[in-house]
Structure formats: structure tokens, C-alpha cells
Specification:
heterodimer, A: about 375 residues, alpha+beta, Jelly Rolls, 2 domains, six-stranded mixed β-sheet, B: about 425 residues, nine-stranded mixed β-sheet
Chain lengths: ~375, ~425
């Protein structure tokens, strides 16, 4: 039979393209604050994989543990339970020296900018460049370019006390980026910035991710910059509630929209459907559905192709060939009848499957589409 | 690293740095003063001995301290003088007598009571009275030797100009040329001030006077001219002091020290000490045995502790104010070594900047105290170095103590 996995379709784990190494691997991570009776759990069994070059946005209400997770990944807190690997190093029980070395590979942009009041913008950024052991002239050129790019060209030699909040924030951003870190961790990097400079910062992030393969994890409430995210992680009360690859989800939604019964669904509902789909894999020649079996899953072909075979007496006849973005298995779920055809993979293929219950619920939702629209209009008042 | 962060921190926040410098400076002044007092006591302890010219000193084995020296036969000094290695052996008389501070009435105002011209009717004060041969008194300073020549009559005295005003100088402040010719009482006899000399007796007494041996026994009638308090032995070769002492002990029939405990040495009426031994005994007495010395020795420690407390407070506040910034450095990947370096540099800079003005202020205070109390407050290179090292030590210690929090905490907890 098919090899079903517990991997959600929207995780992006099976998206097409090169498999890049993981920069961050969080598995079974718990975190506690306080001691003894005051001990309070802040993170519960967090799992998260971030690949090289990804831009991850973490959202969630305040107190949900986003910043805690970010500081744990950034080695700024001690990992006590579970496993956390950053750039190939396990942080749980790690040596202090290793952590000090690892920190130099990271760029941290803090919510509190924590600039040295006694140093100019240039010198503050230079503190990070010096640590990286950059040549003085190379570093100077890069710092000036970076600060100019962030709109501080006129204020390179100003001290923090004569900079505005947003300008200080941008100095802190330059400090986090100057040494070309492999992983950038940013806590509300655009909170103090106006739209234009916020946009400039995220564009810079995108360039770093694309050109330098830099991985970026960002905690933000700023929905103006959501478009840069490759992945959006939502946290509630210390749990990772959802971890969604944006591009993959939009691909799935596009595919789903092609299915006439789902054509009326809102993007929001489509995304929810996508969230409920699981990844299936099949080798060449493997049968996913056998004619006559009871139907239990609805399939979407993510990658590869299948043959549709209908048995007519003793001989089976190939009636169709389906490829990427097409779907099968819906008839048996709608009519509650046995499968009317056999589906066999032509090559190694990947499918996203939706369970019968979920499929039915979506159809009901679809029926209430008009109702949903009324509600939306009503709420506008 | 290239950025002089410690210097930038100090020069950026001038107010905070000034408070730090003031804190360190206060501690340094405190230590300088206590150390100065302690050194002054050590110095005054031997001040009179330092003024005498001797390589070996004879005195009674019953000697208690300078103003309680006890006496021994003058013949012992004469015996010592007969040894060829001895260049000079001079008897020296010293004891505590009573000085009647002369009252100098306001000449413009008529006296309220009829005064007896025979009786100066002043307060009686203890005074160190020294008796020495007017022609060869045995002082190191030649000016005192010259002045001693005026003591041609037993009723003539020279007064130490460093004596306190309570001894009744005419101008009520200090003995000066105005006092020459004044008559008063020393012990049971009348004396006349014929001149002044400058010596200073430190803690032992508030005043001193010098007269001839005959004048001394007039002032201290419990002693005869044949009983002296000290014998000042000057040698041709000061380096041979040990051998000459052995020879003298032999001649005087005294068993060499060490053969039996001093307490059991009942057969001696004199002991002979080198200058080092004399100084050691006096310093021990004043620095260790007297409450005064103990107070100032304790004072040095207290000053040090208070200094550490102040400097720690200043530095730890300073570091606490910058904790977020230091934590950021740590988060960026700077090791504890670098942070320690920055904080220590900052501490040492603070110590140095705090030290220099405090040294100047301490020097000024030394002068004021010396003028006011006559205590010899002196700044030596050794003291300067000790206090400098102490200041740096205090700052470094406080700095590292204040850093402990930074070492242990996760950076995320410090933002």
C-alpha cells in the first residue's frame, strides 16, 4: 500500500527543489523559568526545522514564548530540556567555549537595541566587525555601505544619544549583519521603523538569504513584512500551533482551487484545508487505490504522475493519466461507494491526501460559503 | 581589540566617571591619612633618638620608655670612654619634669588681681627635660650643639620651639625670640629661657627643654649628677658596633645577652644597644603596644575596607548601568576574557585617575596636620607605591566582583 507519513503537507518538507541542510533543528524542546515552586513552563515540546536560506517569521500573542524560543536558538539562554541544534551544534549541555564561538556565526538583532552609549554608530557596528576579525579597511567600507543603505549615511559618526529610536534600531540591525552571519535572529526588527525603512530592512534580509544563504528567524507583529516569509510559525502558550511553508501552502491552495467543488472556498478556508492534508509517497508501480476498496482519502498529486486503470472483467484498461496538480479519489468520498478505479504511480511520486471526514467537512463549509460572505459583510458595519 | 571601550566608557559619561573618581579618591585619601598617622607615630617614636649622635646606646636594663628611662651610674659611661674604639662617650640626662606655663597678661588691661612678681602663677605642665654637656651635648644637628653653649648657668634653659602653646609662649602660639629672657619654674627651681632649639618630641610629650647636667638635677632633684639616663657612645668605626659592644660588655663584666633571660640578669646595671635595636624597641612600643599605635594600624585596615566598599559600590553601579551593553557583547560572541579586560582596564584607569588628585590632597593635608600638631607627616615613595597598588588592587577586586553576575547569567536575562 501507500506509505503514509505524519508530515503535514504545508510544512514544505516535500516541496520541489533542492533539499538544503537544516540550519536549526528544534526537537522536543521544553523550557522553564524560575526555580522550585515558582518554576513555570514557557515552552512545551517545540519542534521546528529551519533550512538554509529560509526566512521564518514567528508570530503569536505576547507571552506565547516566541522570544524565549528565539533567545534559546540564539544561545542567549541555556537549553535545559530537549534538543536544539544550531548550525550543526547541539546546544543542550554545550560547552561554554563552543557557545562563544557559535555566537560569532550568529547575528542577533535585539528588541532593546543595547548600543554602547559611549561609541558612535560606526564604532558600535565595528564591535561586531572586530570580533569577526575583518580587515580594518574592508570592515570600514562594509560598515559605511551598510549604514548608508539603512539611511544613516549622514549619521555614521553620531553617538546613540543624538539618534532617534528608529535610527538606533537601524544601527543595531547593521551591527547584527556586518559580520555576514549564517543565521540572523531578529526580535521585532522593524517595530521602531517607518514603512520605508522597515521595507529596506526586510529587502536587505531577503538579499542576504538569497545571495549569502543566510537563514533568518524573525519575531514580528508587523504584518507589512509578512510577504518576505518563506515560513510562518505561529505560537500560542508555549506551543508551536502551526508551522507553515508559505509558498507550498499557496501551491496547494492553487491546486485545490482547480477542484470544482472547492472553487468557492475563501483563501482562509483553503489554507485550513491545506493544513489538514498529509504527505504520501509512492514508488513507481505502487497502487494507491484499488478498485472496489472502500474510499477513505482524497489525493492531490504534488509531484510525479499516475495511471488510472479501470478493471473490466479480467482485463484492466488504462483510462487516463494524471499529473502534477491533478487530483483523484473524490468520487468514493462523495458517493460513499467503493473505489471505481485503480490508481498506480507511474514514477516516484508525492501526494497530499485529505481524510474522508475532513473532506466532507470542507464540502459543508463550501455549502455555507454564501453564509460566510453574509457574516463578513455583516461584520463590516 | 581595537576599540578602546574602557576609555570610551569613562570619557563618555563624565558625571558617572567623576563620581567614580571621587569615590576612589576618597578611599585613597583615607588610606594615605591613616598610613601617614601610623608612619608619623613610628617616626616620632625614634625622633629624639634620631637627634642624638651615637652608634651604641647605654641605658638601664629597667628602661621602660623614653619618659621613664631609669638611671644607671655615670661611671659606666666613663668606663666606656676608655676603650680605644670609642670616639666619644657622653652622659645624657633625660626625665619628665614640671614646667609652669608663664602667664603673660594683657599689658593694656590692669590686672584684676595683684600678681606676685615672684610667682608666675601659671599652670603646671609635664615637660621632657634633657641635660647635656653645654660644650659637647651629643646632638647630630650642629645648630643645637651651638645653641647649647648658652647654657652656662644651671638656671638657663633652651625651649623646644615645637612645644605646644600650652607651655605659655608670649604670643600664645609658638615659642619665638620674644620668649627669650622669660623666667618661669622648672620643677622646684626658677629658670630663665635663654634660647630656642627645634627638635619635636612627637607623642612622648607635648614639650621639651634642654639644660646642662647641673640644671637637670636642679629640675629633677630625685636624680643625682652621678646617675645618668643614657650613655651616647660614638665609635671610630660604626660598622664595628657589634664587636665593640661585646668588648664593652666584657669590660663592664656583663654576661653577653642570650646567656640568660634578661629578667634573670640581676647583676647588671646597664645594657648596651645598637641604634637598630633602640629603634626596633621604640617602634614596637609605639606602633604595637600603645593604644594609639594600635588605633592607627587598625585605621589603615579600616580605611582599606571602607575604600574597597566605596570603590565596589561605585564600580558595581557603573557595571550594573551598563549590564545590557555588556550582555550584548556577550551575545555577540565576546568571551568573558574580553569583558574582564574591559572592566579591569576601566577599573585601573579609574584607580589611576582617582589616585593623582588624592595624592595631592593628601600631601596638602599632611602639611596642615604637621603644622597644626607637630606630627612628622611625611610622604615617601614607598608609601606612594603601596597606596597606588592598594588603589589598583581595590578597583580590580571590586571590578571582578561586580562582573560575577555577568559571567554567570544568560545574556537574555540581562537585557
Amino acid at each position: 500500500m501507500d506509505s503514509q507519513t505524519t508530515v503535514p503537507a504545508t510544512s514544505g518538507a516535500f516541496s520541489a527543489g533542492m533539499r538544503l541542510p537544516q540550519t536549526v533543528r528544534v526537537s522536543g524542546l521544553d523550557h522553564f523559568f524560575g526555580e522550585g515552586e515558582l518554576r513555570k513552563q514557557a515552552l512545551y515540546n517545540n519542534n521546528l526545522d529551519v533550512r538554509r536560506g529560509e526566512i521564518v517569521i514567528m508570530t503569536g500573542p505576547s507571552g506565547s514564548g516566541k522570544t524565549t524560543l528565539l533567545t534559546l536558538i540564539g544561545t542567549l539562554r541555556t537549553v535545559t530540556a530537549g534538543s536544539l541544534q544550531v548550525l550543526g551544534h547541539e546546544l543542550c549541555g554545550a560547552e561554554r567555549d563552543m557557545i562563544v564561538c557559535l555566537r560569532r556565526e550568529l547575528g542577533f538583532i535585539f528588541q532593546a537595541h543595547n548600543l554602547f552609549e559611549s561609541l558612535t554608530a560606526f564604532q558600535n557596528v565595528n564591535m561586531a566587525a572586530e570580533l569577526a576579525g575583518l580587515d580594518r579597511r574592508v570592515a570600514a567600507a562594509r560598515i559605511e555601505a551598510l549604514l548608508t543603505r539603512l539611511g544613516l549615511g549622514q549619521r555614521i559618526h553620531y553617538k546613540p544619544q543624538s539618534l532617534s529610536g528608529g535610527q538606533k534600531q537601524r544601527v543595531a540591525i547593521a551591527r547584527g549583519l556586518v559580520h555576514k552571519p549564517k543565521l540572523i535572529l531578529a526580535d521585532e526588527p522593524t517595530a521602531a521603523l517607518d514603512e520605508q525603512s522597515g521595507r529596506e530592512v526586510v529587502t536587505l534580509f531577503q538579499e542576504l538569504a538569497r545571495e549569502e544563504g543566510c537563514t533568518i528567524i524573525m519575531v514580528t507583529h508587523d504584518n507589512r513584512i509578512l510577504d518576505v516569509a518563506d515560513r510562518i510559525v505561529n505560537m500560542v502558550d508555549g506551543h508551536i500551533k502551526s508551522d507553515v511553508a508559505v509558498r507550498e501552502t499557496s501551491v496547494i491552495c492553487e491546486f485545490l482551487k482547480g477542484f470544482p467543488l472547492f472553487a468557492d472556498l475563501t483563501p482562509n478556508t483553503l489554507a485550513e484545508v491545506a493544513d489538514q492534508m498529509m504527505v504520501h509517497e509512492a514508488e513507481a508501480g505502487q497502487e494507491l487505490i484499488r478498485q472496489g476498496d472502500p474510499g477513505d482519502l482524497f489525493y492531490l498529486i504534488r509531484d510525479g504522475s499516475v495511471d488510472v486503470l479501470v478493471a473490466d472483467g479480467a482485463t484492466s484498461k488504462k483510462v487516463a493519466e494524471l499529473g502534477q496538480g491533478q487530483y483523484f479519489g473524490e468520487a468514493a468520498l462523495i458517493t460513499d461507494e467503493p473505489r471505481n478505479a485503480t490508481i498506480r504511480a507511474r514514477e516516484k511520486s508525492v501526494f497530499y491526501a485529505l481524510g474522508k471526514e475532513d473532506f466532507r467537512r470542507v464540502l459543508e463549509t463550501s455549502a455555507t460559503f454564501e453564509e460566510e460572505l453574509r457574516q463578513a459583510l455583516f461584520r463590516r458595519q | 581589540m581595537n576599540t578602546p571601550l574602557a576609555w570610551k566608557n569613562l570619557s563618555h559619561n563624565r558625571v558617572r566617571t567623576c563620581i567614580g573618581v571621587a569615590g576612589v579618591g576618597f578611599a585613597v585619601i583615607l588610606i594615605f591619612m591613616q598610613l601617614g598617622f601610623q608612619r608619623a607615630i613610628r617616626k616620632t617614636a625614634t625622633q629624639i633618638y634620631d637627634a642624638w649622635e651615637f652608634d651604641l646606646l647605654m641605658r638601664s636594663p629597667a628602661y621602660l620608655h623614653l619618659t621613664e628611662p631609669r638611671a644607671f651610674p655615670r661611671s659606666r659611661v666613663m668606663q666606656a670612654a676608655s676603650v680605644p674604639e670609642v670616639a666619644a662617650a657622653r652622659p645624657f640626662y633625660l626625665g619628665l619634669s614640671q614646667w609652669q606655663a608663664p602667664i603673660h597678661g594683657d599689658l593694656r588691661a590692669p590686672p584684676t588681681q595683684p600678681t606676685n612678681p615672684e610667682d608666675p602663677a601659671g599652670e603646671w605642665r609635664s615637660i621632657i627635660t634633657m641635660g647635656a654637656d653645654p660644650h659637647d651635648p651629643g646632638f647630630v644637628r650642629q645648630d643645637i650643639c651651638q645653641l647649647a653653649r648658652q647654657l652656662s648657668d644651671p638656671s638657663f634653659v633652651l625651649v623646644d620651639s615645637k612645644s605646644k602653646p600650652e607651655y605659655g609662649p608670649v604670643n600664645k602660639r609658638v615659642f619665638s625670640a620674644q620668649d627669650i629672657g622669660v623666667e618661669t619654674a622648672l620643677g622646684p627651681q626658677r629658670v630663665r629661657i635663654v634660647g630656642l632649639f627645634e627638635l619635636g618630641t612627637g607623642m612622648a610629650s607635648n614639650g621639651a627643654c634642654l639644660t646642662s647636667p647641673a640644671g637637670y638635677v636642679r629640675a629633677c632633684p630625685w636624680q643625682t649628677i652621678d646617675e645618668v639616663n643614657f650613655g651616647l657612645i660614638k665609635l671610630h668605626d660604626p660598622a664595628a658596633a657589634e664587636q665593640v659592644r661585646a668588648r664593652l660588655l666584657d669590660i663592664l663584666g656583663i654576661p653577653p645577652p642570650g646567656d640568660q633571660p634578661a629578667a634573670l640578669r640581676t647583676n647588671t646595671d646597664v645594657e648596651i644597644l645598637t641604634r637598630e635595636e633602640v629603634n626596633a624597641v621604640e617602634e614596637y612600643r609605639w606602633v604595637v603596644e600603645t593604644p594609639l599605635g594600635q588605633i592607627f594600624t587598625l585605621g589603615v585596615w579600616v580605611a582599606l575596607l571602607v575604600g574597597v566598599a566605596i570603590v565596589y559600590q561605585v564600580l558595581s553601579t557603573d557595571i550594573a548601568n551598563m549590564m545590557g551593553e555588556y550582555a550584548t557583547l556577550k551575545a555577540m560572541g565576546y568571551g568573558n576574557k574580553y569583558l574582564t579586560q574591559v572592566v579591569l582596564q576601566q577599573s585601573v584607569l579609574l584607580a589611576l585617575v582617582g589616585y593623582v588628585p588624592s595624592w595631592g590632597i593628601a600631601l596638602g593635608l599632611y602639611h596642615v596636620i604637621e603644622t597644626a600638631s607637630g606630627m612628622p607627616m611625611a610622604m615617601s615613595a614607598e608609601m606612594m607605591l603601596i597606596v597606588l597598588l592598594l588603589a589598583i588592587g581595590m578597583c580590580v577586586l571590586s571590578g571582578t566582583a561586580a562582573l560575577r553576575k555577568l559571567y554567570q547569567a544568560d545574556p537574555a536575562d540581562l537585557f
